[in-house]
Amino acid sequence: MSVAATPAGIGESKKTMPLAGIRVAEFSHAIMGPSAGMVLADLGADVIKVEPAPDGDPTRRLTASGVGFFGFYNRNKKSLAVDLKSPKARGVIEALIRRSDVLVENFAVGTMDRLGLGYEAAAKLNPRLVYASLKGFLSGPYETRRALDEVVQMMSGLAYMTGPPGKPLRAGASVIDIMGGFGAVIGILAALRERDATGKGAQVTSGLFEAAAFLMGQHMVNSLYLPLPLVPMSVRNSTWGVYDIFESREGKQIFIGIVTDTQWRRFCALFDRADLLAEPDFVSNTSRVAARPRLVPLLGEFFRKFSSHEMIAKCEEAELAFAPVNQPTDLFDDPHLKAGGRLRETRLPDGRSVKVPRLPIEIDGADFSVRRDPPRPGADTSEILRDLGFDDGAIEALKAAGVVSVPPPI
Length: 410
Description:
By secondary structure, the protein is α/β, with parallel strands linked by helices. 38% of the residues lie in helices and 15% in strands. The relative contact order is 0.15.
């Protein structure tokens, strides 16, 4: 079901969608695979989410911190509900693979092979297929291990660098699942580009652990220059003299970074602190870093004289890097996201509506919208089967046998 109309442009008109004409068969659940499928769908690909019949992706039924996974990561997709374990499903899946450009899967290692849907089998059906597997680990000693976002955050050192000393802490979002999904998309797009030249598909693999290790590259290089062990980023071992969270008069936390001497001079001028500008210990960033034990408390006391609105206005005028410390729910009312139309309404499977962020890119000044709400389990089964060449009689027979399913009328 389409959402409200939006201004025409890339991402708003099917004729201009970058991946229009690319069909993706998505066999996935949770976040890593669905996030890759969502990006491809947002860019205009026809993404068919293959779900277990009749109840669909188990992610639909998660609770607690996972309750929003399905509703966010499965927009702009169609749903085909099919019993992959049924021998009668073989014809449906083979027809889908033959007519697809890309297959995305993030099941446990060996699952697709056991279903007869591994890369070798799929490539025989469709030599032009780009087959993307999203796994915990790339090839090597760990490749058969199971992994989760939190597992690889611990293994890679990300949790160590995030938490306070002695208390490793996962990041506050599923950053590695999402980065692994984005990595898969990069590989898929590269493989499609190569297919344009060779006519042949390829196998693409994206790994959670390797994605986390990539993020740690900067710290690995830092370790060559800094004393070991590395200090977690929760402990201020700052490169900059002012790079801290301060409180306004009403207690609102605001991060402020002053990272150049030019910015320091503008700060002192706009906040009317000529005394600080004249202080020899604060004359350069290097000296300000050395003087942080005195400078930061001094600034903390000073900033508490201002309201948060005054602080933000002055920081913006001074062209400083700054940010109010928000909660995710504050994004619903963020003036920048609202003004740019970068929050688009979507209806969740339970009927509720919510505004969610668009894909965070623009092409020629236009970005990509929510065109279809997250589907009900099997909502597009009949349409997809007809497109794959099944007539109404064959479709009804598959439904009657429980091989495929469609949702009951609302």
